[in-house]
Amino acid sequence: MIYGHFDRLAGRHVAGWAFNRTIPNQRLTVRVLVDGVEQAAAIADQYRPDLEDAGIGDGAHAFTLVLPPQAMDGKPHQLVVEVEGAPLLGTPVDVVLPNLHYSPLPAPNPVPPIGLAICAIAKDEDSYLLEWLAYHRVVGVDHFVIFDNDSSDATSRILSRLSQQGWLDHVPWPTQPDRTPQEPAYQEGVRRLNGRARWVAFIDLDEFIQPLGNDDVRIVLADYQGVGGLMLPWRIFGSGGRQVAGEGLVMERFTWRAAEDHPVNATVKTIARPELVARVGVHTPGLSAGFLVDENFTVAGAHGDPDRHVVPQARRLVLNHYFCKSWQEWERKRDRGIATALPGSPTHIRPDSHFHSHDVNDVEDKTILRFRDRVRAEMQRLAAAL
Question: What's the CA gap between 141 and 159, in Å, rounded?
């Protein structure tokens, strides 16, 4: 008996699982049809631990098929995923395949008063907040909308004081019992910035937008006026072997990262036009119009899942992600939980395996240190305002 499920369409990726209960070790061939025409086929043999936990054989029964570029036309279609001529649960389904053929949009008219804003959610970040704010002010960020998610340290006081200067919105954002905090915060951030900001970056407080080739993010964005959003590739920085936090800025203490082609870097975050964001996402939003592209104008989803977009040899903007820091700092980060899961849920507390999988120290990268002196000076100005 064959059963399975179509799980999702993400860019060109069609994902799900298929399993023969009668012959548990069999790996089934899965086909994807669009409007009755076969577009892709593959063996369902990818391992997923959730399948094994659910008793689906040995768990190696998932599939990810990649639709051909010519099928991606931005139009509605009927999609069927079938095994041995029978559709999997969840299909047939009516879908709109994303359009991967870039064409520019006109710039907003009138142009909003804020050039570049950041929308972020924070919890117990007082050790890092001034450096992160100062750094982004130095590289051209004009405004911040920070959602304060039940902070118990000095984060709330710092944000409240700085909000009096007019360049930062401090939004108390307590956790609700029936929803995760981060994506609803982003949606509210879009509402607040629509019409106020030309661009908004959706990033975390352990991520630093780094311009390459110049010192101002806005100079780079000027070359992307016709896009709906620009994807920023991750550069994951490891612990460098540090066990304790020690003294110094984050950018000074952690200068070793994963090589550009390491799989841990194959994720992006986004700077988007807020008036075009129809659906927020932690990594990539859904746009009501226009295109989400990388620095080479390759459309999101061209490689498959938009969130897993790869930008080889990025030369315009990257996102330094200080995911691990020291082991001591990791333990604090782990124990406060993540904003994409409900407190008490199995995924709210990260496992230590997340640290080890991201603690990659292949390449020494001190590029960001060219901003160090300006960041320290700006930190002093911010501290004086407190």
Answer: 16
Helix H segments across the chain?
Answer: 49-53, 129-138, 155-163, 182-193, 217-221, 250-253, 327-336, 352-358, 372-385
210: which strand partners? 318
Instruction: Report d(CA 349, CA 341) in Å as an integer.
Output: 9
CA distance 176 to 180: 7
Confirm or reject CATH 2.60.420 for domain 2-96, answering yes or no. no
Give the predicted TM-score (pTM) of the model: 0.82
Give the strand order in the sheet containing 60-66: 2-10, 13-20, 60-66, 46-47
Q: Please, which residues have CB within 8 angstroms of residue 223's CB and are 6 or more apart in sequence? A: 316
Going by pLDDT thresholds of 50, 70 and 90, the confidence category of residue 242 is very high
Roughly how many angstroms between the first and final C-alpha of the chain, as a whole number? 67
Residue 331 C-alpha from the chain's centroid: 22
Give pLDDT tens digits for 152-180. Answer: 999 999 999 999 999 999 999 999 888 89
What residue ranges of the chain are covered by domains with CATH 3.90.550? 114-385
Task: Characterize 346-355 residue by residue with b for buried, 16 or more Cβ atoms within 10 angstroms of its Cβ, and e for exposed.
Answer: eeeebeeeeb
Residue extent(s) of CATH 2.60.40 domains in the chain: 2-96
As assigned by CATH, the class of the 114-385 domain is: alpha beta
**Residue whose pair of structure tokens reads 């010192």 in the numeric block:** 215
H-type helices in 54-181, by residue range? 129-138, 155-163
Strand-strand pairing, 143-148 and 168-172: parallel
